[in-house]
TrEMBL record:
HAMAP family: Allantoicase
Protein name, UniProt field: Probable allantoicase
Annotated catalysed reactions: allantoate + H2O = (S)-ureidoglycolate + urea
Enzyme Commission identifier(s): 3.5.3.4
Pathway(s) served: Nitrogen metabolism; (S)-allantoin degradation; (S)-ureidoglycolate from allantoate (aminidohydrolase route): step 1/1
Gene: alc
Keywords: Hydrolase, Purine metabolism
Gene Ontology BP terms: allantoin catabolic process; purine nucleobase metabolic process
């Protein structure tokens, strides 16, 4: 029988996966039935919620979260809700309902549902016509707390609905999981095989003292140093590194090592390796000097297929983004198709 601490570790293991709902990952809050006190868009803001006491606006204390008015129709099914479009369709492994700073005004209970809707559905279609599947049953939450809930569902989802019972405030809503690439957007194309939106994911990392390595795979360019991956300062002879499982088996033709915004803490040297399955690592880019605050682009001349890549930085420091451009092999594309169909 597992101990309570082992159970907690198992339940929260999903927290290392990227947040598919985050604004920085392309997520958006499309609808809420009420947001009188605080805007729904705050739910997916990267970073922790902030609080400044005695900051009152016309409608009351200003909260860094989503807050609805007090309901007076307190029937058994009274609830407020918000719908989030994920930045990338994916398999949800767990969610976090964070009620930070909400103490006397948090919802006593929540539930989470999801749907996969192809294309770009209207808000009306999502609210009135979409069939939703329960990911987290109606359950209690605590105030001023990060409330994690593991999800056991093999299907891919594009939209998630958070319901709160009967009303109140939620600071952040995190949806952790793995992106699933639509094979129609990979067949015969050169894509970023490491990108979160294409199904790439971080599998191992030596150090993430200041910020998560998941930031390396986010879409777009970093806007601040906090948008990247930064390690603590090493005081030994080693170096830091990160490993990425690609969207599928493929061959690389270019790589981008971006140190944007890292001025006094960029790595001095970068090295890129790859491997096919559980095979040995082999060098794709030899140790190469890196400059601060620079997007470095390198051609990759090695045509051997890989499923995983490893970036070594020497000795430590920060990287904004890692891009690995290439194309899927025939069996890599087939694997993507099978994953897409299996998660329908």
């Amino acid at each position: 029988m597992s101990t309570p601490s082992e159970k907690n570790r198992s339940q929260s293991r999903f927290l290392s996966l990227p947040d598919l709902a985050a604004r920085s990952a392309g997520g958006a809050v499309l609808w809420a039935n009420d947001e009188l006190f605080a805007e729904k868009e705050n739910l997916i803001t990267p970073g922790s919620a902030e609080f400044r006491p005695a900051t009152f606006g016309h409608k009351g204390q200003v909260y860094d979260g989503w807050e609805t008015r007090r309901r007076r129709d307190l029937g058994p099914d009274a609830a407020d809700a918000a719908i989030v479009r994920l930045g990338v369709a994916g398999i949800v492994r767990g969610v976090v309902v964070d009620t930070a700073w909400f103490t006397g005004n948090y919802p006593p209970q929540i539930s989470v549902e999801a749907a996969f809707v192809d294309g770009y559905p209207s808000v009306e279609d999502l609210v009135e016509k979409t069939q939703w599947t329960t990911l987290v049953e109606r359950t209690g939450v605590n105030g001023d707390t990060r409330n994690p809930f593991p999800v056991d569902s093999p299907r891919r989802w594009s939209h998630v609905r958070l319901s709160i019972y009967p009303d109140g405030g939620v600071a952040r809503f995190r949806v952790h999981g793995e992106g699933v690439l639509n094979p129609d957007f990979a067949d015969g194309m050169t894509i970023d095989l490491a990108a979160l939106e294409n199904g790439g994911r971080i599998t191992a990392c030596s150090n993430m003292f200041y910020s998560s390595p998941n930031n390396l795979l986010l879409p777009g360019t970093a806007r601040t140093m906090g948008d990247g991956w930064e390690t603590s300062r090493r005081r030994d002879a080693g170096n830091d590194w990160v490993e990425v499982h690609l969207a599928g088996r493929g061959t690389l033709n270019a790589a981008e090592l971006d140190t944007s915004y890292f001025v006094g803490n960029a790595p001095g040297v970068g090295r890129l390796s790859g491997r096919d399955g559980n095979g040995d690592w082999f060098e794709l880019l030899p140790p190469t000097d890196l400059l601060p605050d620079t997007r470095h682009r390198f051609l990759i001349r090695d045509e051997r297929p890989i499923t995983d890549a490893r970036l070594d930085i020497h000795p430590d420091g920060g990287m904004a983004r890692l891009r690995l451009f290439g194309s899927l092999t025939a069996d890599g594309l087939q694997g993507i198709r099978e994953s897409w169909d299996a998660s329908a």
